[in-house]
Amino acid sequence: MSSNSQDSEKPFLQNPKRFNSIKDFKSLEEFPDTKSMAIADCSGNIIYANHSFELSFHLKEGDNFGTFESEPNINSLIEGLSLSKYSSFHCDLFYFRNTSGASPNFYVEVERILVNESDFFVFIFSSLEERQKLESKINTLHNALEFGNVPVIITDSDGRITYSTKSFEKILNTTIEFLYSRNIIDVLSNILDHPDLEDLRVKIAGYEKCTKVVSDINDDGSLSYIELTINPVKRDDVAAEAMNFIITANDITNYVQKNRIIKRSEERQKSIINNISDLLLIVRSEKGNLYFENANDNFYEVFSLKREKAMEKNIEDIFDKHFHLILTQAINNLTKFKNAYQEFRYKNYIIDREYLGSITFTDDHYEEQRIFIISLKDITEQLINDEKLRKAYQKETHVNKLKSSFLANMSHEIRTPLNAIVGYSELIEDDVKSGSIDSAIEFFPYLKEGFNRLLSLVDNILEVSLIQSGETELDIVSTNVASVLKAVYRNMMHFALDKTMIFDIDIEDEELSIKADRIKLEKIVNVLVDNAIKYTDRNGKVKLKCYYDETAKITISDTGKGIAQENLTRMFEPFAQEDEGHTRKYEGAGLGLTIAYNLTKLMGGELIVDSIINEGTIITLSFPCSLPAN
After folding, report:
1. Which of 21-25, 121-125, 299-303, 412-416 shows the lowest per-residue confidence on average (mean pLDDT)?
2. Boundary of a domain, candidates 373, 404, 430
3. Which residues contact 436 (CB under 8 A, 6 or more apart)?
4. 459 lies in a domain?
5. Residue-by-residue DSSP string for 449-476
6. Which helix (H) or strand (E) holds 431?
7. Where are the beta strands (DSSP E) in 72-192?
């Protein structure tokens, strides 16, 4: 630092006032508590006395200490110090001629000085009572620090130790004899690492406050933690730049351990919460508003939230209106009905997941707040599985029903032709044995009919099985519709004649063709005409027709009993009939419409049924044309 800067910062110290005489010096003002001071020569003559000395001892310049009645005698002190090799001396002094009423006991400090090759003696008198009070304060402070077990070290401005309590000595495992005048950085080098020591060195050099935490292993193997605080203290009684450092030590072991326990507990709770697969949300109710308190990681991820952006905000500002409405309604219901918990359903349409929510709460009476804990369980897979189970149950029920229908129908449909075959066979056998060949010949058509019926039933069962297994093979070719209808007409005419009904055929376009399996198409039309004739009473009418109307159309109409609207869809299922069981009016296994419907779909066509009870039924087949109609 330059001399200019020093002069600007400490003008009083660098530029002291000059005096020409002691008289000028005595003209300076003194503080009320200024100590009494006098300067005497070797003969005890007082050559200088300040105001405090004159007031206390009624002596002034020019007087001699010979009139100063005290024990020890001042002149004897001057003589003894003059003859000795010592430069200073101090002792307690009793003043006999004290008339001020103050204590006669003083503490006197004598300094020997040399001026112009002559010895002079500077006397400074302190009231022993005041000194005792000061010492008492110091002792009281010292005892408070010692017996209060307060670890304290005091250093000078350079960091050299001037005072230490025993409790600090215990922490450093040393004594005041070792510590005294040693630099605090050197002393702490055994318990602080290098970076902390360097930081401490910088802080002391800059007269800055510094805090460090050190750990140590106790005799029982446990860890202890000490917080060291270094505070710079300005001394008011000396130059402005003079500083002391006070180093205090606080045992923060319990604090650290409690914090660690709390931290471990918080981390454990956080780990438990974050390992819960359900979404977890914590909401705080305060003065009628709901605030976001916390959530687990799964919740943040699903709702695309950032923890720092959501904390302490009103949930209305965080969540979409749909979720906010569901959540607030559930909380209101929980509060209104005073339930222990409240459940709700929530569908997240963004990620297409559905959740079952559950809300419970706990009250913070100290903060006068209510904390709501909301869990959201993903039930999407559960609902999908439930739907699959429901459909499987329905399918199983349907299959069981089909089995029952199959057994009921088959027991009748198989037994009827078999009984006829067995019966006619026995009759033929009896006639052959009796030689009546003519009557036996009459039974052969009936026997053949029984075989054909049984064969048709087996064929239909096999057809349905192939369709349902997806193994049906189609030979798709360009097929003339008129030729197929005429073949069916010829094949089914005798059944219509047997029931004395009208059976017509109407071919509007002889050249109408479609892409189809001819055999399968003929089977479709055949079973539909067979059903029409079967379910139409005697003297009724059945009509077979084909025409072009954007697509190739085939219609089979009858004036039969009709089908109820509620049964139309069910009639396409295997073994389905309006009348089921042994008591039904009409024969058949209930496979005709099933075969016709499925084969039509396999060949790219459409089958539509229009029916009115007791008026009749119209079945329309539609197929794309392979060639334009003429």
Report:
1. 412-416
2. 373
3. none
4. no
5. HHHHHHHHHHHHHHHHHHHHHT------
6. helix 380-434
7. 88-95, 105-115, 118-127, 152-155, 161-164
**Hey, what are 98's tokens?**
């004290």
Alpha carbon distance 141, 138 (integer Å) = 5
Which ranges in 49-160 belong to alpha helices (H)? Answer: 51-57, 74-83, 128-147
**Angle at alpha carbon of residue 235, lines to 234 and 240, rounded to 5°:** 80
Burial string for 30-57 (b: 16+ CB within 10 Å, else e) reads eeeeebbbbbbeeebebebbbebbbebb
Residue 621 region by backbone torsions, left for phi larger than 0, else alpha for psi between -120 and 50, else beta? beta
Does the pLDDT at position 451 exceed 80?
A: no
44-84 residue pLDDT tens: 999 988 888 888 888 888 899 888 888 888 888 888 888 88
Q: Which two tokens stand for residue 342?
A: 């409240």
What residues does 361 pair with on adjacent strands?
372
CA distance 417 to 270: 78
Of 342, 373, 404, the position where a domain reaches its end is 373
Q: Is residue 271 part of a domain?
A: no
In a domain, 492, yes or no: yes
- SS3 call for 137: helix
Tokens representing 215 are 């750990």
Asked, for residue 4, whether it belongs to a domain, the answer is no
> Where in the sequence is the domain holding 165, given as residue range(s)?
149-257
Give the total number of structural domains in the chain.
Answer: 5
